[in-house]
């Protein structure tokens, strides 16, 4: 376990006596597990790589420990393991380790390694995270969690969320010269409907040590979605500046959008689809772009298991060539 991760656990442990002072509710601990796994055939056109062929991937294996001290104070620790095709298992990451103070329904303050505002809601609104991460997470235009101070305030139809973090993320935590900030505002004008906007600004801890800072990374997001009893539909857009050029000369912009839809035919079966287009170098290499397509059918036999037959297609265009990859197989989520 890395030093920042041990420090976050130690900080949370030091806060336990403070949390235990309140006597509102009996302490309670809940342990849960969530596993994302798939067996699929991956083929790439025009290029040969080690990850091609039929293989099994352990996309994610989470163990969550939630402890409630009382009605106001709680703590969460989540471990994360990944084992992708033809590779070694990842380190055992500390995905979450935070202390939370609640201030009523939908309002709280978290200290430690906690989810960032945008990607968490991105996954919740689309609803099929176990098949693939959403637009921002899949393209690595943001981190799912980071060390810092996180807050959310809910009032009526509006939800405000913000995080002041290291910028290094939870997998390889490190400190830059200044804190990064991510914020999100969501408005729910009708049942199931959400309109959201947000952004990120910072150096992503890439200016650590003596590395010079040439630019500040910025990202702006917008999302509109509807979640009903049987269906989901939504779209999101991002525009970023200098996301990967913080310590490199020459400015560059990125942008992309995603649209998704799903419909539950019966309580056990659902159809879902998703389409994305991204351009990750609008200024330096404007011909570079990617198109992502996903189509699947899900079977949900009970509350613990979700199975999906999925087909994916990714087209990547560069100045010199166009590459396509096709993947099809079975994806599963186990939760207990």
UniProtKB/TrEMBL annotation:
Keywords: Signal. Residues 1-22 form the signal peptide. It comes from the Bacteria. This is Porin.
């Amino acid at each position: 376990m890395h030093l920042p991760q041990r420090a976050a656990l130690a900080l949370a442990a030091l806060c336990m006596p403070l949390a235990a002072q309140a006597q509102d509710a009996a302490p309670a601990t809940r342990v849960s597990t969530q596993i994302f796994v798939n067996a699929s055939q991956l083929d790439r056109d025009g290029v040969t790589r080690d990850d091609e062929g039929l293989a099994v991937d352990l996309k994610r294996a989470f163990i969550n420990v939630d402890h409630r001290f009382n009605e106001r104070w709680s703590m969460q620790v989540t471990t994360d393991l990944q084992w992708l095709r033809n590779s070694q298992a990842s380190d055992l990451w500390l995905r979450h380790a935070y202390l939370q103070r609640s201030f009523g329904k939908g309002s709280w303050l978290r200290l430690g390694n906690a989810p960032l505002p945008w990607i968490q809601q991105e996954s919740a609104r689309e609803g099929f995270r176990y098949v693939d991460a959403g637009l921002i997470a899949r393209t690595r235009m943001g981190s799912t969690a980071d060390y810092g101070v996180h807050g959310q305030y809910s009032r009526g139809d509006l939800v405000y969320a913000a995080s002041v973090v290291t910028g290094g993320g939870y997998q390889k935590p490190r400190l830059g010269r200044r804190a990064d900030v991510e914020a999100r505002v969501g408005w729910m004008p009708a049942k199931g409907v959400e309109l959201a906007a947000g952004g990120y600004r910072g150096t992503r801890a890439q200016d650590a040590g003596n590395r010079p800072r040439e630019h500040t990374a910025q990202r702006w997001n917008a999302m509109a979605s509807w979640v009903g009893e049987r269906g989901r539909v939504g779209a999101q857009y991002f525009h970023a500046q200098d996301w990967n050029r913080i310590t490199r000369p020459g400015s560059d912009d990125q942008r992309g959008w995603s649209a998704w839809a799903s419909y539950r035919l019966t309580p056990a079966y659902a159809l879902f689809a998703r389409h994305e287009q991204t351009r990750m170098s609008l200024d330096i290499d404007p011909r570079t772009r990617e198109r992502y397509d996903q189509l699947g059918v899900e079977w949900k036999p009970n509350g613990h298991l979700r199975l999906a037959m999925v087909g994916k297609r990714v087209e990547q265009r560069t100045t010199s060539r166009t590459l396509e990859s096709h993947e099809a197989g079975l994806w599963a989520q186990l939760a207990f």
